[in-house]
Amino acid sequence: MSEMEVQSMVLGMVQTNVYLVKNKTTGELLVVDPADSPDRITRKAGEMDGKPAAILLTHGHFDHIGACAALRAKYGIMVYSEENEKEVLMDTSKNLSGSWASPVTLEADRYVKDGDILRLAGFEIHVYHTPGHTIGSCCYYFPKEKALFSGDTLFCESYGRTDLPTGSSHDMEESVQRILREIPPDTAVYTGHEMFTTIARERKYNPLAR
């Protein structure tokens, strides 16, 4: 039986999926892409009887980082981001907060890179650098639990837009194809927006699948 419990919340003006990932053995909890409403995320963590241990960012757009600073301060936890995403996190024009919402910048506590293996909250987490939506977009793969948190790289039968600052349609195609090639088909995919999916489904129906 899996030690992982995943609960999701849809928060913020762009309806972002925020994930709370609890290790049922240790009670520790990871927050993936805390979009907005830190009080609501805190309340959900309490309902899950989980102790936040870290924040994982799939990328730096304002609609994925809005509650980061408040949660980091409240729990004294670290924020993880892919190393190439620093320029997006620190630039209001690139993270879109300057034009879409209140300007916000964020400095991650630890910058990770492709191939890194994190051990947080009792989980083993593999980092995949998946540029395309932004230059430092990444996915977090939990091999034992057969779970992938894909941010705005891979959606259900779709993929993230590539026309925003630091985006690239060429990179997106390569990133999606790599994920579909390297991640096992029975993996659950927790996407940044809208409904969840699986690698098997995306291998069959995603427009970027070979």
Going by helix content, strand content and strand pairing, the class is alpha/beta
> For the terminal residues, how far apart are their CA atoms?
33 Å
Task: Count the E strands.
Answer: 14
Overall helicity: 10-25%
Order of helices and strands: EEEHEHHEHHEEEEEEEHEEH
Low-confidence stretches: none
**Beta-strand content estimate:** 25-35%
Mean pLDDT: 95
Radius of gyration: 16 Å
Specify the number of helices: 7
Strand order of the largest sheet: 1-2-3-4-5-6
Q: What general form does the structure show?
A: globular
How is the topology of this model organized?
Layout: E1 4-11, E2 16-23, E3 28-32, H1 38-47, E4 51-56, H2 62-65, H3 68-75, E5 78-82, H4 86-89, H5 97-100, E6 110-112, E7 117-120, E8 123-129, E9 138-142, E10 147-151, E11 154-155, E12 158-159, H6 169-182, E13 188-191, E14 197-198, H7 199-205
Parallel strand pairs: 3-4, 4-5, 5-6, 10-13
Antiparallel strand pairs: 1-2, 2-3, 7-8, 8-9, 9-10, 11-12, 13-14
Describe this structure in words.
The chain is of the alpha/beta class. It has 7 helices and 14 strands. It has helices at residues 38-47, 62-65, 68-75, 86-89, 97-100, 169-182, 199-205, and strands at 4-11, 16-23, 28-32, 51-56, 78-82, 110-112, 117-120, 123-129, 138-142, 147-151, 154-155, 158-159, 188-191, 197-198. Strands 1-2-3-4-5-6 form a 6-stranded mixed beta sheet, with helices on one face. A 6-stranded mixed beta sheet has the order 7-8-9-10-13-14. The model has no long low-confidence stretch (mean pLDDT 95).
